[in-house]
């Protein structure tokens, strides 16, 4: 379960990027977070994986107030959370295999198990033939799927994705969205930030709309 209690965040002395936001995302839910550019979507995701601390309020993941975690506890939190960034953040000097393997290496998996698991997820993504490629030689859609493979290879409890279908064509968007849905069916809680209204409208998922740092619409408000 993800919970935000009256969360505000101001960058330096600026206006609040998030203003008194409260939100509950039950385990196994799938939500789209939407709103115009600058509405606060990326900021909210960053709070959820401990990259930012709220100026006010609390962010609670699985019953744990994450602003109370020490620096050394943050990596432990992140093991539960797969993140797909807006710009993929793939390592350019490493192969596709090595990029995805990173997630399991930090968890201390053995080399043989890593090889098997990475091959399996890349096959699911239709990328097994690119396993030894340099990510920079892949198309945008393929790079996005490598980023997703890296985020999902350890079956995280939570998947956070920031504008994952941004520059993709319709076919690639469909493919990415169906990967999210499959992960969700396997039990991962999914939070996707996007301003791609078309992707959202056809998906019949919970929709949370941010405007100037406030939640102005929630298609599935959960009673207190
Ligand atoms: N590092 C930063 N320093 C100062 N202000 C920031 C920083 N990052 C974001 N902001 C400001 O916070 C507000 C919310 O930004 P955020 O990136 O969360 O919006 P967003 O909804 O994700 O936008 P986009 O769809 O363009 O990615 C904006 O006004 C933005 O200018």
TrEMBL record:
<dbReference type="InterPro" id="IPR005286">
    <property type="entry name" value="Cell_div_FtsE"/>
</dbReference>
<keyword id="KW-0472">Membrane</keyword>
<keyword id="KW-0131">Cell cycle</keyword>
<dbReference type="GO" id="GO:0022857">
    <property type="term" value="F:transmembrane transporter activity"/>
</dbReference>
<dbReference type="InterPro" id="IPR025662">
    <property type="entry name" value="Sigma_54_int_dom_ATP-bd_1"/>
</dbReference>
<keyword id="KW-0132">Cell division</keyword>
<keyword id="KW-1003">Cell membrane</keyword>
<dbReference type="GO" id="GO:0016887">
    <property type="term" value="F:ATP hydrolysis activity"/>
</dbReference>
<comment type="subunit">
    <text>Homodimer. Forms a membrane-associated complex with FtsX.</text>
</comment>
<dbReference type="InterPro" id="IPR027417">
    <property type="entry name" value="P-loop_NTPase"/>
</dbReference>
<dbReference type="InterPro" id="IPR003593">
    <property type="entry name" value="AAA+_ATPase"/>
</dbReference>
<comment type="function">
    <text>Part of the ABC transporter FtsEX involved in cellular division. Important for assembly or stability of the septal ring.</text>
</comment>
<keyword id="KW-0067">ATP-binding</keyword>
<dbReference type="InterPro" id="IPR017871">
    <property type="entry name" value="ABC_transporter-like_CS"/>
</dbReference>
<feature type="domain" description="ABC transporter">
    <location>
        <begin position="2"/>
        <end position="223"/>
    </location>
</feature>
<dbReference type="GO" id="GO:0005886">
    <property type="term" value="C:plasma membrane"/>
</dbReference>
<protein>
    <recommendedName>
        <fullName>Cell division ATP-binding protein FtsE</fullName>
    </recommendedName>
</protein>
<dbReference type="GO" id="GO:0005524">
    <property type="term" value="F:ATP binding"/>
</dbReference>
<dbReference type="InterPro" id="IPR015854">
    <property type="entry name" value="ABC_transpr_LolD-like"/>
</dbReference>
<keyword id="KW-0547">Nucleotide-binding</keyword>
<dbReference type="InterPro" id="IPR003439">
    <property type="entry name" value="ABC_transporter-like_ATP-bd"/>
</dbReference>
<dbReference type="GO" id="GO:0051301">
    <property type="term" value="P:cell division"/>
</dbReference>
<dbReference type="Pfam" id="PF00005">
    <property type="entry name" value="ABC_tran"/>
</dbReference>
<comment type="similarity">
    <text>Belongs to the ABC transporter superfamily.</text>
</comment>
């Amino acid at each position: 379960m993800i919970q935000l209690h009256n969360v505000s965040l101001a960058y330096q002395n600026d206006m609040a990027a998030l203003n008194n936001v409260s939100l509950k995302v039950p385990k196994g839910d799938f939500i789209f977070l939407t709103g115009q550019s600058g509405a606060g979507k990326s900021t909210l995701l960053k709070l959820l994986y401990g990259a930012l601390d709220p100026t006010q309020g609390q962010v609670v993941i699985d019953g744990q107030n994450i602003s109370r975690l020490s620096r050394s506890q943050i990596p432990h939190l992140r093991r539960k959370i797969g993140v797909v960034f807006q710009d993929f953040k793939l390592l350019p000097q490493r192969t596709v295999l090595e990029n995805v393997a990173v997630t399991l290496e930090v968890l201390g998996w053995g080399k043989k198990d890593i090889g098997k698991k990475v091959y399996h997820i890349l096959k699911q993504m239709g990328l097994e033939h690119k396993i030894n490629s340099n990510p920079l030689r892949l198309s945008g859609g393929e790079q996005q799927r490598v980023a997703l493979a890296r985020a999902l290879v350890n079956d995280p409890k939570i998947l956070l994705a920031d504008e994952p279908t941004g520059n993709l064509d319709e076919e690639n968007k469909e493919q990415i969205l169906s990967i999210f849905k499959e992960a969700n069916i396997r039990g991962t809680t999914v939070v996707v930030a996007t301003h791609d209204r078309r992707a959202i409208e056809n998906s019949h998922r919970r929709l949370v709309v941010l405007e100037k740092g406030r939640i102005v619409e929630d298609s599935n408000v959960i009673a207190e």
